[in-house]
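User: Here's a structure from my thesis project, written as C-alpha cells. My advisor, Dr. K., wants to see whether a designed sequence matches the one we expressed. Can you design one independently, without my sequence as a hint?
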C-alpha cells in the first residue's frame, strides 16, 4: 500500500478516465479542488479501491459517480459541504469526526477542466 503523510493534492480533474485508484493510504493530507469520476458515461467511471483516509482535510472537492470499494475514512475535515454524486458504495466505513457530507444518487457531470494532474499515479 502506498502511503502519503501531510501532503497536499490538487487541483485534480478526473474526467472520463475510467481510472483505478487503489491500495493508497492518506494521513493528515489536504485535498483542494479535487474532482474524482466526472462522467456521464458509466463505462468511464473511476474506481477507488482499498483506500484509507485518516484525519484529512478536503475543500472545494467532490466525488462523482465513482465506484468506492473497501474504503476507510477515519476523521475528515470539510470546509463547507463535501458532496458525492451518484457514487456506488461497497464496504465503505466512516468513523471519527466527519464534517458536512452529502451523499446523493443524482449524477452530475460538473463542467471542469479536462486536465488530470495528481501525485498518486
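Assistant: Designed independently from the structure alone:
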Amino acid at each position: 500500500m502506498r502511503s502519503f503523510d501531510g501532503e497536499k493534492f490538487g487541483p485534480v480533474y478526473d474526467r472520463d478516465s475510467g481510472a483505478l485508484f487503489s491500495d493508497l493510504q492518506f494521513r493528515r493530507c489536504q485535498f483542494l479542488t479535487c474532482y474524482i469520476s466526472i462522467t456521464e458515461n458509466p463505462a468511464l467511471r473511476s474506481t477507488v479501491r482499498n483506500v484509507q483516509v485518516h484525519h484529512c482535510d478536503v475543500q472545494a472537492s467532490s466525488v462523482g459517480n465513482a465506484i468506492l470499494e473497501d474504503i476507510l475514512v477515519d476523521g475528515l475535515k470539510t470546509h463547507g459541504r463535501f458532496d458525492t454524486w451518484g457514487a456506488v458504495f461497497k464496504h465503505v466505513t466512516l468513523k471519527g469526526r466527519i464534517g458536512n457530507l452529502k451523499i446523493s444518487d443524482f449524477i452530475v457531470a460538473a463542467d471542469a477542466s479536462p486536465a488530470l494532474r495528481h501525485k498518486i499515479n
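When you compare it with your expressed construct, this may help: The first strand starts at residue 2 and ends at 5.
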